[in-house]
Amino acid sequence: MIQEISISDLDPRQIKQLEGADRALTKDVNYSLEIYSSILKQSPGCLELRKRLRQQQLKIAKSNTKGISSLLGKITNAPFLFKSRTNQNPESVLTSAEELIAKNPLNAAAHQMLADAGASLKMVGTVVFAFETIRLIEPKNLQNLKKLANAYLDAGESDLAIQTGNAILEINPSDGDAEDMMKRASVAVAMTKGKWEGSTDFREQLKDKEEAEALEQSAKAVNDSKGLEALIRQTYDKVQAEPENLNHYRQLCDYYQRYGDLQNAIAWIQQARKLEAGKGDISLEEKERQLTLEYYDGIIEQWEKALSADPQNSDSQKGYSDALAAKKSFQRNQLISLVQRYPNEYGYRYELGCILFEAGEYDTCLPHFQLAQRNAKVRLDAILFLGRAYLNKKFFDLAIEQFKLLKNEIQIMDDRKKDAVYQLGCCYESMGKPEEAIEEYKAVYSADISFRDVADKINAFYSN
After folding, report:
1. CATH classification of 394-464 is 1.25.40.10, yes or no?
2. Residues in the chain with pLDDT < 70?
């Protein structure tokens, strides 16, 4: 058995190596991957590092189809490799699986091998992660979805097991395995929320038949108004019986959100945040923020419909502009507060930077985009916005540096790269360098003739 740990639990020397590898990602990704793999081999229980490594591996694999094609001959031998390793100890199989994944991160069989080894070593999180990765590669692989659902159950993630069961039933509505799994998941939900132990019949542990039926409705993701009303009544009774239990408040919020009553959903989250256990719960704060934004979006949508029906109506015009302004004000104030309280949550810095950029506050948004690059999920977008901000300030040399970085790092000509290359051309054009500018515009034109006004720029160039 290998204990699963986080990066912070690693040897300080390993942590220092990882920090260096993180910094090198933009310049030499292969070097960073070597460091990740080496440390993971030394500490195979570090699930956080495994996820970080896999994110980069999959990113490269999906953008480099040529490299993948060249590996096809090697991949065909993978099943024989698995068979030959069945007699090895699980630790060796774990290492072998990582080696195969490094060669081809999109090889689902290698991830299955990782899951098998993880199961033998009781590495529950690793097993879940392996099946989650296969789901990314083969989203409609029913056998894998069933394994993932059962892995969620083993990990105590009953709600995720139910969600996965619903995904299976969307593909195959008559799948008996999925229905059986969801029944077991509903029992697990009841056991967890009610803190009951050792029961083989969860109905006997519930207060009455009505509550049992409500639980089954929840497991099947009931969305009709009658079913949701029953669930709301049942959960409200639970709140009255256990007023300090945060789970009941979360559940009520979820039901009201699905019911379409966002005001009540927000109100119950606010009540939860007043409890002693909820005061420091960041997830509750984030839930309230997202629900409030959803509420504003609903109001804005209503005004848009009114304007569509009568574009000249002054009341509708004012209502629409007021709703937009209210949402922006809420977003800005919330994000400023979040950044002040959680300065190292770089995702919030990215969101705030976007709000400030949209408002034309380029000096203010710059430091947020600079720091947001530390978050791998938003790093490339932060670099793009940083370049845009420099461009708007006419700091062309600094803008070029950012756009070139993206141009070289993004392997495929997706929308983000097209934007970066196009804006690189704009920088050269503004600096009076038409030859350099047209080369960048040509690159975009070759990939997407309809991108912005690049066709006009190319036509103008060749007509001179």
Report:
1. yes
2. 64-88, 179, 183-225
Tokens 């009781």 correspond to: 122
Which pair of structure tokens corresponds to residue 189? Answer: 């939900």
**Identity at 186, one-letter amino acid code:** S
What is the structure's pLDDT at 89?
Answer: 83
Q: Could you read off the pLDDT of 415-456 as tens digits, one per residue?
A: 999 999 999 999 999 999 999 999 999 999 999 999 999 999
- pLDDT at position 205: 43
pLDDT at residue number 464: 73
| Range 61-96 burial, b when 16+ CB lie within 10 A, else e | beeeeeebeeeeeebeebeebbeebeeeebeebbeb
For position 452, what pLDDT does the model report? 94
Tokens of 7: 């990066």
Q: How far apart are CA 134 and CA 105, in angstroms?
A: 10
454 touches 441 (CB < 8 A): yes
What's the CA gap between 250 and 153, in Å, rounded?
Answer: 20
Q: Which of 269, 298, 271 has its CA nearest to residue 286? A: 269
Contact between 418 and 394 under an 8 Å Cβ cutoff? The reply is no
Q: What is the residue type of 297? A: D
- Give me the phi and psi of 2, to 5 degrees please: -110, 130
Asked if 423 contacts 433 with a C-beta cutoff of 8 angstroms, the reply is no
What CATH number does domain 207-280 carry, 1.10.10, 1.25.40, 3.30.70, 1.10.12? Answer: 1.25.40
Say how far apart CA 316 and CA 300 lie, in whole Å. Answer: 10
Judge contact between 99 and 115, C-beta under 8 A. no
- Residue (of 161, 160, 80) closest to 113 by Cα position: 80
Which residue, 91, 88, 15, is CA-closest to 49?
Answer: 15
Q: DSSP secondary-structure letter at 86?
A: T
The pLDDT assigned to 306 comes to: 93
The two domains 207-280 and 394-464 share their CATH topology (first three levels equal): yes
Query: What residues contact residue 94 under an 8 Å CB cut-off, 6+ apart?
Result: 2, 44, 114, 117, 118, 121
Say if pTM beats, i.e. exceeds, 0.85. no
CA distances 448 to 137, 418, 440, 442, 455, Å, are 27, 8, 13, 10, 9
Q: Which residues pair with 46 in a beta bridge?
A: 5
Domain ranges of the chain: 1-138, 207-280, 394-464
Instruction: Return the pLDDT at 214.
Output: 54
Rounded Cα–Cα distance for residues 414 and 451 (Å): 11
Question: Which residue in this structure is represented by tokens 């995702």?
Answer: 347
The Cα–Cα gap between 338 and 453 comes to 38
